[in-house]
Amino acid sequence: MKHDDQDWEDRVTAAWGSFDAYGEEGAADFRAVIDALVAELPAGSPLGPFERACAWDSTGRSDLAVPLYREALAAGLDGYRGRRARIQLSSSLRNIGRPEEGVELLTPELGAPSDELDDAVRATLALCLSSLGRDREGLALVLESLAAHLPRYRRSMTNYARALN
Asked: N or C terminus: fewer CB in 10 A for the chain?
């Protein structure tokens, strides 16, 4: 299900743009703003649990975000937001001591169509791998991502990354 209300999207973007102004003491107030926006969505919209998960996650409650990310994905969240949900869910799983689930969730994303989230996929996957004691694999992913942004030494870094696996 897609939500095409640009006004709603703009208000969600504005809410997230003001996130830092809430500070730690304003976490509940920020979540209330997101909850009010979510209440405007049609029943069953995957955007609701996704935005709520993001709000819980961003205010330090990965444990409460995990089931909401799963709900959003199960409800059909796809595309860019679906990819964000898989990245953020993997990070949250790592934060609550379940990095192996994060690896399982993100590994298929390495073969997904390329977009601006590619580096976030690799960085989050690297953190999950590191939490499992698989630092060399994680370092290889990070070096591979970094190599794409280097004006020089791109080929060398890519080869070094491959050699780590």
From this structure: C
Gyration radius from the chain CA atoms: 17
Question: How many CA atoms are closer than 13 Å to the CA of 124, on its beta-carbon side?
Answer: 27
Taking the model in full, what pTM does it have?
0.92
Q: pLDDT digits over 117-143, tens only?
A: 999 999 999 999 999 999 999 999 999
CATH of 6-133, one of 3.80.30.20, 3.30.450.20, 1.25.40.10, 3.30.40.10: 1.25.40.10
**pLDDT tens-digit readout, 47-56:** 999 999 999 9
DSSP labels, 2-61: ----HHHHHHHHHHHHTHHHHTGGGHHHHHHHHHHHHTTSPTT-THHHHHHHHHHHHTT-
- CATH 1.25.40.10 in the chain is located at 6-133
